[in-house]
Amino acid sequence: MSSTFGRLYRVTTFGESHGPAVGVVVDGMPPGVHVDVEAVQHELDRRRPGQSAITTQRQEADRVEILSGVFDGVSLGTPIAMLVRNTEQRSKDYDALKDVFRPGHADYATFEKYGVRDHRGGGRSSGRETVGRVAAGALARAALAHVGVNVVGGTVRVGSVDAHDRDWTLVEANPVRCPDADAAVLMQALIEKVRDEKDSVGGVVELVARGVPVGWGDPTMDKLDAALAAAMLSIPATKGVEIGGGFGMVALRGSQTNDVFDGERYTSNFSGGISGGISNGNEVVVRVAVRPATSIGKPQVMAKKEGGTQTVAIEGRHDPCICPRVVPVAEAMLAITLADAWLHQRALRGRER
Amino acid sequence: MSSTFGRLYRVTTFGESHGPAVGVVVDGMPPGVHVDVEAVQHELDRRRPGQSAITTQRQEADRVEILSGVFDGVSLGTPIAMLVRNTEQRSKDYDALKDVFRPGHADYATFEKYGVRDHRGGGRSSGRETVGRVAAGALARAALAHVGVNVVGGTVRVGSVDAHDRDWTLVEANPVRCPDADAAVLMQALIEKVRDEKDSVGGVVELVARGVPVGWGDPTMDKLDAALAAAMLSIPATKGVEIGGGFGMVALRGSQTNDVFDGERYTSNFSGGISGGISNGNEVVVRVAVRPATSIGKPQVMAKKEGGTQTVAIEGRHDPCICPRVVPVAEAMLAITLADAWLHQRALRGRER
Amino acid sequence: MSSTFGRLYRVTTFGESHGPAVGVVVDGMPPGVHVDVEAVQHELDRRRPGQSAITTQRQEADRVEILSGVFDGVSLGTPIAMLVRNTEQRSKDYDALKDVFRPGHADYATFEKYGVRDHRGGGRSSGRETVGRVAAGALARAALAHVGVNVVGGTVRVGSVDAHDRDWTLVEANPVRCPDADAAVLMQALIEKVRDEKDSVGGVVELVARGVPVGWGDPTMDKLDAALAAAMLSIPATKGVEIGGGFGMVALRGSQTNDVFDGERYTSNFSGGISGGISNGNEVVVRVAVRPATSIGKPQVMAKKEGGTQTVAIEGRHDPCICPRVVPVAEAMLAITLADAWLHQRALRGRER
Amino acid sequence: MSSTFGRLYRVTTFGESHGPAVGVVVDGMPPGVHVDVEAVQHELDRRRPGQSAITTQRQEADRVEILSGVFDGVSLGTPIAMLVRNTEQRSKDYDALKDVFRPGHADYATFEKYGVRDHRGGGRSSGRETVGRVAAGALARAALAHVGVNVVGGTVRVGSVDAHDRDWTLVEANPVRCPDADAAVLMQALIEKVRDEKDSVGGVVELVARGVPVGWGDPTMDKLDAALAAAMLSIPATKGVEIGGGFGMVALRGSQTNDVFDGERYTSNFSGGISGGISNGNEVVVRVAVRPATSIGKPQVMAKKEGGTQTVAIEGRHDPCICPRVVPVAEAMLAITLADAWLHQRALRGRER
Lengths: 353, 353, 353, 353
What we know:
4 copies of one chain form a homotetramer. The mean pLDDT of chain A is 94. By secondary structure, chain A is an alpha+beta fold. Chain A has one domain (4-349): Chorismate synthase AroC (Chorismate synthase, AroC fold). Chain A is built from 7 helices and 17 strands. In chain A, strands 1-2-3-7-4 form a 5-stranded antiparallel sheet, covered by helices on one side. The first copy, chain A, has a 5-stranded antiparallel sheet with strand order 10-9-11-15-12. Chain A is globular, with a radius of gyration of 21 Å. Chains in contact: A-B, A-C, A-D, B-C, B-D, C-D. The A-C interface holds A 7-8, 30-31, 77-78, 219, 343-344, 346-353 and C 7-8, 30-31, 77-78, 219, 343-344, 346-353.
């Protein structure tokens, strides 16, 4: 298994949460794409903790440095390495956790897998690993813009509160990143309540890719649905993914869910823009189930390394709802997946898209 | 993009629905595993159409031939190629579809992707491609049995009818492959009704892997969740996947969904046996959303190749609910995914599991 | 490790020499290429044993069957599986070898690697595995023809006899496949002498690809030189490879071996058509060292499975010089490598070549 | 194509010669290996220019920083990123080369491939890219030491001067890195002469891996020979590779080159420790042809970007013979290749080696 996603647009992240740095190597970026370090930084700022009252209050400066692959602001077609130093590492916060395994976390599984572990934070399982993904996603967005593709996303559910509208221009205007202003207020209230209870709550993030041409993806093992599903469930704290109608169309009839197409337009989008694994010209729509964050302040029963259990309250600064911070990560993974599918289609047909 | 799933246990399928044959090459099968051609045939028989009143009445003999990689009933560690000839191909059934694109199907996307297509049946997008997966899955099961892992699965929802019990021994006793005898009766009635309406209905397939040791999977891009999600959404007609609590835990609190572990046992399984991408010793639980089959007998509006639309009723023999036949395919993909994760863990640690 | 060569034009062979069949799956063939089964058969006939007095007298009909990926004589862009049944398997010839390890052969290493082996012939190590390569190479040639690339090759050395001319039109006119008519006579005489001594002799095969555009290959790990070297040394009985000037330019000066280029033409080709890993517009020239065939009729000392040694003469029909039959295999691997590099360049630039 | 070598022990380099940094990500390092940053630095110091009178006089401090994957001096099993800042970049040296393509160099091919280029130095084609390889190789050595494998290497030919002895303990005692003290003196004299003529000369580097157990490598596409050949010809300035007897055994008979094995020892090593692609227990022996360095001080005819030619003398500090500096790089690539083969064998058999 590897730390790489993609085969032609290959994204390899590295770095532990409490090591010297996190980063990414993007190998396969087409040459000649304008690469703006500030666009990368902008996406990292969206991912950063401490942005609002409803995210963790950890402060991470997260300044990105581009180490290679770019000359005079243009991609060379060679690997682009990007680096973010780890700065505010309160490793001490984790001393109490050295000899226990946190419930819901990967602590126990990691220790059994490797035989060694860095107990300070989640190591590779930490949300901090997503810094590299977001940076790589910013480049993928720049590449996709050349062929008229863009991605948006937002939180469409928190607990039992659903968004009904999809006004993507609102997403950055509320701390929940919800495309429905009214729902955003309710979601925020719920998150604050949960935060005060030292608990956490889950939600759903929705993503839309617009402008995807017909023909990306593959009919069998590498269906675009499959690649997107892998992309999404590689994000920490996700436990479900659906394309288009998803689980909701299970109860319907084929005569309802077969999107009618007149050669130019579809009258519905139950397929989520993908038919038989291949993009069909409709918007690509993906939804991701985000579990309640496993790091909570409430005391919990934990297995001890040497046997038995202990009740521990995890100190530190937690996200009561991880959705707002999953949004830029999921958008990045969507862009990366599409960039990879795009390059494969170029290889197949020998033309731009 | 490719027709291969897996990196160490590599499964490559080939074959169009109306070409001479379908098949698979399994490269990476460990040597010394007892390979029983009848066990492979048994799984293929479970996948076969025409098994009951609620599946398509197409008859496919589907006798498998093992072409390589096995000597004296034991795997050699070399590629195992398996072949199934296509026999009952009613290509004529498809003549009416030569110049139209069926709604919900991959016809249009395929044509735009490749510039050429075999209009007779779904080509590679046909469910027939899964023959190779099921054969490869049978071998993966044999390999996993060496380390005490087995997989089961069944239909747990059809339309709005849910299974409440999970008695996996019942699955082969009813045509729906439902692990709940009472629900099976209701599901069957619903499917028959839908069939008589020349329509189709969706459902949910659930899979469980038992005996998976702690430590399989990877913490970042190759999370076991991600690999399973890709495996499942590479199956035709699937549009959603969830692990453990999945979408259902979105509305809960972290204090509820953090599975408590005492060092030996878990009191719940919201993580579906996977923590931070790595198996945690609990049962691995996966659910797949199966859309209503896109092939229906009802007349539908279809886009014509040369422009405009036409209303066509698709002749032929369809599955009113694809779930019963998805079960063996999904089990196969689960076994294949686990076999691959197992071999990676052997590489990482240099020991059996 | 795998039985696959290439990443976008992926060739996976399967089959043991004494199993039911050998074959290949080509995944990544571009759609719309005219695929002529007779062109494939023609290449297989060139590879076949029993073609002349100086090759093994084994007779293998080797009729190829295309199982998938082709419709109406045109590639669909889906996997192309090709099958050749094993017919004349004199397994009995190998009974004497069941309990010994042949010198120079992979018998011992294979047994230690896998813990099991099929002692009848070389199994996967047999030259018979190259049937699939040659079939896949024929398709690669067809694909490359679209962009004006073709490959030729021949035997340029046998023992100490060198070819001085390179008239590739002569290659099929003599049993040695030598591009120099005079040298061919001497080579043939040498091979016959060695054959009569129940011994074998080595040689060098040279390959040339013409029409390769500038820009194929990669500057670092995936240099075109590296890919070609892997391709060549994956052929049985090869133990050396050189590009352009190769080992011969070791004794020269940089001022001699830096090919002068005036923007259109090169005055020399020490780089063998590849500069810094990337094709430079010159002819691609590769030479392969073919060891004396390890299967010889002379009695040899062999290690016994249960310890100790034994002197055994290997019965059966051997090639006294494997070069003439390596030629079509090496050409195939060259074509496959170039097809893969071509598709990568299409992915990189989004245009035909 | 990619900047990655290996599939389980994956080495991805990044960085241009005149960008901010060069480096590498090693993904797949087994956990629990003692990682000594000084051992990495030691190998980098061996690769460094400016070590003696016969290498380029460029000074590069090349201090390595480990960014991830190591905790308390032990590998975590997660990606190990290593970084070396570029410091002494005399970019001005290259201004005269902005509008011409140097003969023998990748300048022209690179420009045509990507459509853009960084004219300052070789970019990715620069020998500076090998910094990452050497760092990754140091880790591979550490991993291989666990299973008793070590690698040595040296310059065995310069121009027409051959080494006759193989005393590997002498390698670091002379600036040529020759395992034969007498030959080293002659080689050095030749290199100094060539240097004074502002020219360059080629040579041969030989590598030996000791302690490789039987069974590493694969019988077909991924023969250990093939992997080693790719590894070697991915090193800048190499144009040939041979295993064991290589080109030299072309003129011999099979009865001479079939290494006799008595079950414990081989009486010769024409196979170079690899039979049928699989290690056979003998020492693995590889030789690499290193062309005369393409960067020379003599005036040369160069193609101009806008057409026509120009005679230019390349300023700067060149290596008159690249062999001494290829030695640590080739050793690194050998170690990396073996580490990858080792992990594959662990996956295949589920045991240490």
